[in-house]
Amino acid sequence: MIALCRDQIDLKALKENTKIKLETVLVDHHNLSDEDMYLMDSVVKIIDHRPRDERWSWPGGEIHLESVGSCATLVARNLFDKHPHMIDSQISSPILIDTCNFAKEANRATIVDVEVTNALEKAGSLSLDRDKVFNEIVEAKSDISRLTTDDLLIRDLKVTSGIPIVGLPMLVKITRVVFQLVGQCIFPLGMEEGKIPDDAITASSSYETKSVGPQNARFTLLPTVK
Ligand SMILES: [Mn+2]
Q1: What pTM does this model have?
Q2: How many CB atoms lie within 10 A of CB 225?
Q3: Which of 120, 129, 159, 211 is in Cβ range 3.0-4.6 Å of 92 for a Cys bridge?
Q4: 141 CA distance to ligand 1 middle (Å)
C-alpha cells in the first residue's frame, strides 16, 4: 500500500495541464479552503460524514454524505460498490480508531460502521482480534520516541486560513493538592493580590493601554502588595 500526501502532488500543475482532466474527490470534508478554491470545478465526488454545510451544495457532483462514525466506512463501502478488487481490509483500522473500537460509551459507531467492518474482515486477512489490532494502533500512534522536534511540530499540524496550529502532545498531570488550591482558591497565586507586578504582565498589542492593557488581566483586583 502506498500512502501519498497531498503536498507530494503538484495539484496546481495537474489542474493547469490542458492535456488531462483533473478529477478530485473530497474525503472527510466537503468544503474548500481559500487556497484550494482553484479545484472548485474539478471536484467530482464527495465522501464525507460531517453534518451538511449548506453553503457547499456541489451541484453536479456525486455526493455521499452520511452521518457515520468513521469516514473510512463510507470510503470502504464506495470501494465495495465500485471497485471491489481494490478493497484492502486494512481500511478497517481507521474505523476502529474513529469509533474507539466500537465502544458503547464512545457512542460513535453506527450500524453502517459495524456492517462495513464485518464485510472488510470477511474480505481480508486482517486479524479478527479487534482489541489486539486497536491496541496496537493506539500504541503506535502514541509512540513519539523516534520523532524529532520538527516531526512533532508537523505531526498534527492544522492550517486554518493560513495560520498554522500545532497539535503538540503534552502529558498534563494534575495532583490533588494543585486541584484543591485552584478549586477552592485557598491561596492567591500572585496575580490576584499583585505579587506579580503590572509591568511583568505583557501583551503583544492592546487597543488602549490604560483601560484594556495587560495589567487588567487579573480576575479580582486586590490592593497591591508592596
Ligand atoms: Mn472525520
Answers
A1: 0.66
A2: 11
A3: 120
A4: 17
The CA 206 to ligand 1 mean position distance, Å, reads 38
Taking the CA atoms of 75, 165, 163 and 8 in sequence, report the sign of the dihedral they define: negative
- CA of 40 from ligand 1 middle (Å) equals 21
Report CA(27)–ligand 1 centroid distance (Å): 9
**Alpha carbon of 61 to ligand 1 centroid (Å):** 20
CA of 107 to the centre of ligand 1 (A): 15
Out of 143, 160, 189, a domain closes at: 143
Report d(CA 225, CA 215) in Å as an integer. 15
Same-domain check for residues 76 and 139: yes
Q: Which domain holds residue 108?
A: 6-143
**Residues 118, 209 within the same domain:** no
Spatial CA neighbour of 50 closest among 78, 25, 24, 31? 31
